[in-house]
Write a structure and sequence with these properties.
The complex is a heterodimer of chains A (304) and B (261).
Chain A: H1 3-17, H2 25-55, H3 67-70, H4 74-78, H5 97-131, H6 133-146, H7 155-162, H8 166-190, H9 194-202, H10 207-229, H11 231-246, H12 250-259, H13 263-291, H14 297-301
Helix pairs in contact in A: 5-6, 5-8, 5-11, 7-8, 8-10, 8-11, 10-13, 11-12, 12-13
Chain B: E1 3-14, E2 22-33, E3 37-41, H1 48-56, E4 63-68, E5 71-72, E6 80-83, H2 95-105, H3 110-123, H4 139-151, E7 157-161, H5 169-186, E8 189-194, H6 197-203, E9 206-210, E10 217-222, H7 234-260
Chain lengths: 304, 261
Amino acid sequence: MAAVPAMVEPGLSVASSSATSVRQRPSALLVRLRAALWACASVGLFVGMWEFAWWRGWADPLLLPPPHLFLANLADQFRFFDPNGDRAGALSSGGSLGSVLGVIAWSSMRVTAGLALGFVLSLAVGVGIRYFGVFGKLTLPTITLLAPISPVAWLPVAVFMFGIGNPPAVFLVFISVFFVMVLSTLSQIDAVPASYLQVARIMGASKRQLFRHVILPAILPGLFVTLRLNLFAAWMVVLIAEAVGVGSGLGQVVMMARNTFNASLVFFTMTLIGLAGFAFDQALRWVQRRVLWWVGPSAAAGGL
Amino acid sequence: MGSAIQLNRVTKIWNEGEPGAVTAVDSLSLQVGQGEFVVLLGPSGCGKSSLLYLLAGLEQPSAGELLCDGVRVAGPAPERSMIFQEASLYPWLTVLDNVALGLRLQGVEQPERDSRAQALLRQVGLGDMGQRRPHELSGGMRQRVALARALAMKPKVLLMDEPFAALDVQTRARMQGHLLEVWRASGASVLLVTHSIDEALALADRIVVFTARPGRVKHEVSVALPRPRNPHDPRMVDLHRQLTELLADEVDRAFLEQETR
């Protein structure tokens, strides 16, 4: 019985929010609060099951230490985080919360750089393919061929080309989004309504104006969604790169923890990775709402 | 009255030379006078819209020539503005910026183009809607914004492709009133495509009845009655009957063609 109003109410507020967004504020807040509570319940259930398994003795605390164990001695965990990363595998002295944030910042910086590079270059290449026939004919087949190759397969190439350090990690993130985003750019350009172009042409728009005032704003929202969908892939790839070829960052800490059989540190770092990825997604959502407001309230509210 | 538009034996064949070739317009000649309001009336899919696309310069004719003010139509130009069935406003621009976009493309500076766009919005009765976004407007309002946007180009010719077809009957009547006011104020020639006899009779100086595909001129009717017109006026009723009969044949033919295809 109680489930029925809970099902109906969010649906109602979505339907009417486009008409009067101001009056709906309190109920929108309520919807958000409710979503947050459910999120807490979901995480709580997961943690609870894990703790229960430990309490019953099913989960070996050395291999699968539950949260209350790996979160117990934070200072102890912090010692393993060294933002400079030039002593891979070794204990760095005097780890603090600052050094943990430093490590997260390094990983985040690599993801951001790779995503930004991928976004800009794939947009440029996609537009080039559609606008310059010869360029398109020369590049598109190769891009289509390279697109399905897993970024992990690019790892050795990244190391061959860039050695050790930031460049191979950024390159891998870039590769993981570039091809997908080029293909997405193409389909977005093809999906621009013909009447949008006709209206601008009748107004006397030049080819350049057509791109800047019509095509670019028309394809940006779709591209941004593609970017967000590929964010998680980018996070996975950066960790692999860090574990193998960089020597700093969250991926390096996980690899070090694995090598030293420190399960507690593995799970602690995994928690950090999850939180960082979540924060990234929220940040991109925020940018999407702010910069691409015309996508409309329904699109902003409905998941993607 | 000089002619703003002149079509000399214009033919348009879609997918010319391919198996699916369709003759949309067949050797059609037509004139529209300066400041004249001409309605093209015909069954759906009879090539009326193709004709507008040709006049807008968005498509090239397969044969024949189109002249605007005696100059051959070679491509799109602001002097020949077009309004589509859907308003096609840009969702990323405010209503005001939508109206001002054409001026912006022409390099008109911000304060100037904003004040001109604002004046046009007032003219179509949306003076206080400038800062809204298109998705906040009703269908009729959006179409009025599209009208203001077209007028911003100071067109000599307004091409309208079933502009009110997507609106409900009440909104449609109001929109027709708006259009007549704007038309009188602007002095532009209007070529409007519709399949509604009522709409044609309410608006036109002259009604051109089209045949089913391929589109040819079947008949022309002048409507020399003052506006606003009362649909129950005996002369209007008479014209309505006449047009209904003319159209009925063509609708039958259009159906036959679709069934046998």
